[in-house]
Amino acid sequence: MSGGRITSEEKSAISTYVGAGIAVVLAVIGITFFFLTQKEKKETTTFDPNRPVPSDAVLKSRLKAEEWSVVRENGSQTPFQNEFWNSEKVGIYVDVITGEPLFTSLDKFDGKVGLPTFTKPISYDLLVEVPDNTNDMQRVQVRDKRSNARLGHVFGDPQSPTKRRYVVYSAAFHFVPLDQMKDRGYEKFLPLFDKK
Fold first, then answer.
1. C-alpha 85: how far from its chain's center?
2. Which long-range contacts (CB under 8 A, 24 or more apart) does 121-124 make?
3. Residue 132, Cβ neighbours under 10 Å: how many?
4. Quick check: is 131 in a domain?
5. Is the pLDDT of residue 77 over 80?
6. How far is CA 32 from CA 18, 25, 27, in A?
7. CATH code of residue 147
8. In a domain, 27, yes or no
9. Which pLDDT belongs to residue 45?
10. Which pLDDT belongs to residue 29?
11. Looking only at Cα atoms, what is the longest distance across the chain?
12. Exposed, middle or buried, 112 (CB in 10 Å: 0-12/13-18/19+)?
């Protein structure tokens, strides 16, 4: 620097350092964002029974509005206008919050109510039944034990092999096709499909 003035070489060097600094900061931000996105993708598409239940703040940003309404605000869905009511795909239905496997397509049937209907869950130990007197009706609500997600209702049904029917909301579930179960952490549930 001569006489307090910055030479063109010095300006060029400063520009290079500033540009390199900005590039490094952007690269760090990009890499961090990539890993956070991959972590969230893994948390929402794979199953780990030891993964903690996300907070409601995280769920509110992660779930679709209809999913949030059903599992946290006791909302409902329109019969015959929901994702799984007439699905015949083979696989498992998992809790939209934790990915906990709750029902299989093997136990699904057309309950004529326009909502997914099952004869039984994968394990009764995964569910909680709670009295529900809303809308001036006496019903039994079904919730996921671990996440406390509201799933739907259970009713007596003399036609069902279990004498019960689980009428649940599509928005409370994600579906995992049979051919993706192993890759997504549900390998131990594959033998359920060997029995039929």
1. 18
2. 121/166, 122/92, 122/189, 122/192
3. 15
4. yes
5. yes
6. 21, 11, 8
7. 2.170.150.20
8. no
9. 57
10. 74
11. 98
12. exposed
- Which residue bears the tokens 């890993």? 35
Query: Tens digits of per-residue pLDDT, 155-182?
Result: 999 989 999 999 999 999 999 999 999 9
Tokens matching residue 41? 């993708």
> Residues 70, 169: contact at Cβ < 8 Å?
yes
User: Which two tokens mark 6?
Assistant: 């910055």
What are the pLDDT digits (tens) for 128-157? Answer: 999 998 888 889 999 999 999 999 999 999
Domain carrying residue 180: 56-193
> How many domains, the chain?
1
**How many Å apart are CA 81 and CA 155, to the nearest integer?**
21
Global confidence as pTM: 0.77
For 191, half-sphere exposure in the C-beta direction (CA atoms, 13 angstrom radius) is: 1
Q: How far apart, in whole angstroms, are the C-alpha atoms of residue 99 and residue 82? A: 19
